[in-house]
Write a structure and sequence with these properties.
CATH class of one domain in chain B: Alpha Beta
Helix content of chain B: 25-40%
Strand content of chain A: under 5%
Shape of chain B: globular
Helix content of chain A: over 70%
Distance between the termini of chain B: 35 Å
Order of helices and strands of chain B: EEEHEEHEHHHHEHEHEEHH
Strand order of the largest sheet of chain A: 1-2
Oligomer: heterodimer
CATH superfamily of one domain in chain B: P-loop containing nucleotide triphosphate hydrolases
Structural class of chain B: alpha/beta
Number of domains of chain A: 1
Mean pLDDT of chain B: 92
Strand order of the largest sheet of chain B: 6-7-8-3-9-10
Structural class of chain A: mainly alpha
Radius of gyration of chain B: 18 Å
Distance between the termini of chain A: 47 Å
Bound molecules: adenosine-5'-triphosphate, magnesium ion
CATH topology of chain A: MetI-like fold
CATH topology of one domain in chain B: Rossmann fold
Chain lengths: 280, 251
C-alpha cells in the first residue's frame, strides 16, 4: 500500500518534471524577448518606415509584409489542401497511386524549408516568370503548409462519426451532398486547427521567402501581388547579422512583434473556430 | 393487399462469406412485417439490401432480385438515391445529426429539393405531427437534437423519413436502446403509421414481433426458414427450428 503510494508519487513527479522541462524553455524565450524588446515598442516602431539605414524608425513594412504573406498563402493553401484531403479520404480508392500520393505528402512535410525556397525560385520566380514577388512567396509558403493542412483535414474528416455519413446516405443524399452537408460542417473546427498551425509556420519561416519575395529594404509599401515585401523574420535576420550598430532593443522588439503578430492571428482564427463549434 | 416488396432468390456474400442464402419473401403493402432470428443470422443484412445500403460496403456481392412496386431496384437504371428516399431506414441507435430539430427534418427535403423555403415550416410541422412530437417540440425547434430524450430522438429519426415522404420504413431494432414504456409507445406509433407506410422491423424481442406485426419471418444462418402470418408463426410453426426458437429452446 505505502509502496504503491510511493511509486505513484515518483511517477507523478517524473511526469511533472517532463512537463516543466517542456514549458521552461518556452517561458525563458518569452521572458527574454519581452524584457529585452519591450522598450522598443511604440506607435512609431509599429507604424512607420525604417530610418537611418534601418537602425531607427519603425518596422511597419515588415509587419505588413508578413501579414500579407500569411493571408495570401493561407487563402491559397487552405482551399487546395482541403479539396485534396476530401478527395483522398472520401473518394480515392486505396490503390497504388493513392499510396504514392500519401507517401509524397508525408515526405513533403519533412522537406527542409530552404528546399521549398529553391523550388519556389525555380518554379514561380523563374519558370512561371512571376518574378520575386508576393505571388511567388505566398505560393511557395502555401506549398510548404499543404502537408499540414491536408493531414489535419484528413484527421478532422476521419473524426466525423461514421453514423453521420450512414444517415445521410440512408436519406438518399448523394456522395457529394453527404460530404457537403453531413461531413464538412462537422470537420470545420478541425480543419481550421490546421490553418492555425500553418499561420505560425508561415509567419516565422525565412528560407522559403528568401529567394522568392523578401526584400532587404524597400522605401515604399507594396501595391500589388507582383511587388516585393519586407518580412519580419528576414528583417530580424538582417538587423542582427548584416547591419552593424542596430540597437539591441530594436532587434528584440522585432522578435516580440513577430511573436505577437502570430499570437494575434492565432487568437483571431481560434475565435472563428469556436464560432463554428458553437453553431454545431 | 398487394406485395410492396418482392424478394426472389436473393444471395449475398461479404467477401467469401455467404451471408444470405436464397432468400425469398413478399412484403405486403401497408402492413408490418417483422424479421426475427438469432444474432448474426442476416436480418440486418437483408434489411440493408432493400435500400441498397450494402452498396456502401466494399467487397459485397449480391445476386437475385428485389422488386419494389414491380421495379427491380438493382437494375442498371435505378438510382440508389431515389430508392433510399422511398425506402427509409431507422437505425438501432437513434442518430439525429447534431443540428437543431428543425434542421434535422429539413435535411432530407433539402437534399431532394422537395420544398421551397416557405414550405419548409409546414413540412417540419407535418412531419413532427406524424410522429406525435409536435406538441412536445414545437417550442424547441431550434434546440440541438442531441438534447432530446432517446425516445424523442428515435421519433425524430422517423419524422425525418416522413419529411421525404418515404413509403417503406426499414427499422433495425428501433427500440433496443429504449426503456420498456418508450418501447410500447414506439410500437403504438408503428401501428398508427401502418395506415400510410409499409413497415419492416428487425427485432430480438419476440413479444414485440407478436404484438406489432402482421407477418413474421424467421431467419437462421442466412436462410429465411419460415415466413407467414404472425399468428401462424407463433401458434403453429411449420418448421421445427422456428418452433425451437420461439419457444426459447435456441441459443
Ligand atoms: N460488413 C460486413 N463484412 C463482413 N461480414 C459481415 C458484415 N456485416 C455483417 N457481416 C456478417 O454477416 C452475418 C449477418 O450479419 P447481420 O448483421 O445481418 O446479422 P443480424 O441478424 O442483423 O445480427 P444481429 O441480431 O446481431 O444484429 C454475420 O455473421 C456478420 O458477422
Ligand atoms: Mg442486426
Amino acid at each position: 500500500m505505502t509502496n504503491e503510494g510511493a511509486r505513484q508519487r515518483i511517477g507523478f513527479g517524473l511526469l511533472l518534471a517532463a512537463t516543466l522541462l517542456v514549458v521552461l524553455p518556452v517561458l525563458a524565450i518569452i521572458v527574454l524577448i519581452v524584457t529585452k524588446g519591450w522598450s522598443a515598442l511604440s506607435l512609431e516602431f509599429l507604424f512607420t518606415m525604417p530610418r537611418d539605414g534601418m537602425r531607427a524608425g519603425g518596422i511597419f513594412p515588415a509587419i505588413l509584409g508578413t501579414f500579407v504573406l500569411v493571408l495570401a498563402s493561407i487563402s491559397f493553401a487552405l482551399p487546395i489542401g482541403v479539396m485534396a484531403a476530401v478527395y483522398l479520404s472520401e473518394y480515392a480508392k486505396d490503390n497504388l497511386l493513392t499510396r504514392i500520393i500519401n507517401l509524397a505528402i508525408i515526405n513533403l512535410a519533412g522537406v527542409s524549408s530552404v528546399v521549398f525556397g529553391l523550388f519556389g525560385l525555380s518554379l514561380f520566380v523563374v519558370f512561371l516568370r512571376f518574378g520575386v514577388s508576393i505571388l511567388s512567396g505566398a505560393l511557395t509558403l502555401g506549398i510548404m503548409t499543404l502537408p499540414v493542412i491536408i493531414t489535419t483535414t484528413r484527421e478532422a474528416l476521419r473524426a466525423v462519426p461514421k453514423s453521420y455519413r450512414e444517415v445521410s446516405f440512408s436519406l438518399g443524399a448523394s456522395r457529394w451532398q453527404t460530404i457537403r452537408h453531413s461531413v464538412l460542417p462537422f470537420a470545420t473546427p478541425g480543419i481550421l486547427t490546421g490553418a492555425i498551425l500553418s499561420i505560425g509556420r508561415v509567419a516565422g519561416e525565412t528560407a522559403p521567402i528568401l529567394f522568392t519575395v523578401a526584400a532587404f529594404y524597400l522605401p515604399k509599401l507594396p501595391h500589388s501581388l507582383g511587388d516585393q515585401v519586407m518580412a519580419l523574420p528576414y528583417h530580424l535576420y538582417i538587423a542582427t547579422t548584416q547591419i552593424p550598430g542596430v540597437p539591441e532593443n530594436y532587434r528584440y522588439g522585432t522578435a516580440l512583434v513577430l511573436v505577437g503578430l502570430v499570437l494575434i492571428m492565432n487568437i483571431a482564427a481560434t475565435r472563428i473556430r469556436s464560432r463554428f463549434r458553437r453553431k454545431r | 393487399m398487394s406485395a410492396k416488396i418482392k424478394v426472389e432468390r436473393l444471395n449475398l456474400w461479404y467477401g467469401a462469406f455467404h451471408a444470405l442464402i436464397d432468400v425469398g419473401l413478399s412484403v405486403r403493402e401497408k402492413a408490418i412485417t417483422s424479421l426475427i432470428g438469432p444474432s448474426g443470422c442476416g436480418k440486418s443484412t437483408l434489411l440493408r439490401c432493400l435500400n441498397r445500403m450494402n452498396d456502401l460496403i466494399d467487397d459485397v456481392r449480391i445476386e437475385g432480385s428485389v422488386r419494389i412496386d414491380g421495379q427491380d431496384i438493382y437494375a442498371g437504371t435505378s438510382a440508389p438515391t431515389a430508392l433510399r428516399k422511398k425506402v427509409g431506414m431507422v437505425f438501432q441507435r437513434p442518430n439525429p445529426f447534431p443540428l437543431s430539430v428543425y434542421e434535422n427534418i429539413a435535411f432530407g427535403p433539402k437534399v431532394h429539393h422537395l420544398a421551397k423555403a416557405d414550405e419548409m415550416d409546414d413540412i417540419v410541422e407535418d412531419s413532427l405531427k406524424a410522429v406525435h412530437l409536435w406538441d412536445e417540440l414545437k417550442d424547441r425547434l431550434d434546440e440541438n437534437a442531441l438534447a432530446l430524450s432517446l425516445e424523442q430522438k428515435q421519433r425524430l429519426c422517423i419524422a425525418r423519413l416522413a419529411a421525404v415522404r418515404s413509403e417503406v420504413l426499414l427499422m433495425d431494432e428501433p427500440c433496443s436502446a429504449l426503456d420498456p414504456l418508450a418501447t410500447l409507445r414506439i410500437e403504438e406509433l408503428m401501428r398508427y403509421l401502418r395506415s400510410d407506410y409499409t413497415i419492416l422491423i428487425v427485432t430480438h424481442n419476440m413479444q414485440q414481433a407478436a404484438r406489432v406485426s402482421d407477418d413474421t419471418g424467421f431467419m437462421l444462418l442466412g436462410e429465411l426458414i419460415e415466413f407467414g402470418r404472425t399468428t401462424d408463426i407463433f401458434t403453429r410453426p411449420q418448421d421445427k427450428r422456428t418452433e425451437d426458437y420461439i419457444t426459447g429452446r435456441f441459443g
